[in-house]
Amino acid sequence: MRKVITIDGASFRTLEEFFETIGSTLIPGRKWGRNLDAFNDILRGGFGTPDEGFTLRWINAAISRQRLGESTFNLLVDIIRDHGTGGLQFEDHVELELRENE
User: Fold this and answer.
1) CATH code for the part of the protein at 3-99
2) In angstroms, rounded to a whole number, what is the distance separating the alpha carbons of residues 15 and 5?
3) What are phi and psi of 27, to 5 degrees?
4) Stretch 17-43: mean pLDDT
5) C-alpha to C-alpha distances, 102 to 8, 25, 86, nearest whole angstrom
6) What is the 8-class DSSP label of residue 43?
7) Residue 1 contacts residue 53 (beta carbons within 8 Å)
8) Consecutive H or E run containing 80
9) pTM for this model (two decimals)
10) In angstroms, rounded to a whole number, what is the distance separating the alpha carbons of residues 73 and 6?
11) Dihedral over Cα of 15, 93, 24, 66: its sign
């Protein structure tokens, strides 16, 4: 069964807070660059994320879209989706599940 990792869009307001949330959720206790390139690297694996891939469930995604802004939100979504089915880095087996309001 695929591991599901959940982040709550209501728990952060800025990109920096997103990085804090994603780090503490995906790779707790590990140091990382907290930028878009480093986020992309985390999704590739080898930093403590499940080797077989995982589903990233983003609840309250509508709140994130509003708080982060459409372009930043879409950029994060694109980075995540690039690591899943149909993406250039599909072999990482990261699937995104957006839940608008929870």
Assistant:
1) 3.30.370.10
2) 19
3) -140, 65
4) 95
5) 9, 18, 27
6) H
7) no
8) helix 70-81
9) 0.93
10) 16
11) positive
